[in-house]
């Protein structure tokens, strides 16, 4: 609610004849009022339906994943709490997301966990001895590299070099 709205409502109430029964009725509205600079007020009434605005999908000790229930805009929200003093908060958040979404099916191939053999701006090679797999991630910026076929051949040459350097690790993973 803005101050102008309150003034308009006050004027309307002064124009209408007062109902004696309305004066004895007290109404309470629960909600939150925010007073902004310049005495501009905004009031948000609390839901009175008794229904939750969240539909819980998954929950862990450090967070929860829920879907908002509403008429205007529905969305999925992940709420993860990182303890103060966490040495790697980004890793903690990513682990939290993995735990909350483990039941969901991913369309992308899962990232391989293991030893990183090469990590360059356009190339990443990861070896997982546990799964006996090698993951290659190659990237080519088409705007910066109009001749993408030669860029691909250069990346493949670098992959071949990496395999030659890490031959012993690759053979022991078989």
In short:
The chain is of the alpha+beta class.
How would you describe this protein?
By secondary structure, the protein is an alpha+beta fold. The protein is built from 5 helices and 8 strands, in the order ααβββββαβββαα. It has a 3-stranded antiparallel beta sheet with strand order 3-4-5, covered by helices on one side. A 3-stranded antiparallel beta sheet has the order 6-7-8, covered by helices on one side. The longest helix has 18 residues, at 148-165. The model has no long low-confidence stretch (mean pLDDT 82).
- Protein structure class: alpha+beta
Q: Point out poorly predicted stretches.
A: none
How many domains? 3
**Secondary structure tally: strands:** 8
Give the N-to-C terminal Cα separation.
68 Å
Question: How many helix segments?
Answer: 5
Largest sheet: 3 strands, antiparallel
- The percentage of residues in β strands lies in 25-35%
Average residue pLDDT: 82
**Strand arrangement, major sheet:** 3-4-5
Which of globular, elongated, flat, extended, rod-shaped describes the shape?
A: elongated
Radius of gyration: 30 Å
- The amount of helix comes to 25-40%
- Provide the succession of SSEs: HHEEEEEHEEEHH
List strands and helices in order, with pairings.
Elements: H1 3-15, H2 20-24, E1 31-36, E2 40-45, E3 54-59, E4 63-68, E5 76-80, H3 89-100, E6 115-120, E7 123-128, E8 133-138, H4 148-165, H5 167-172
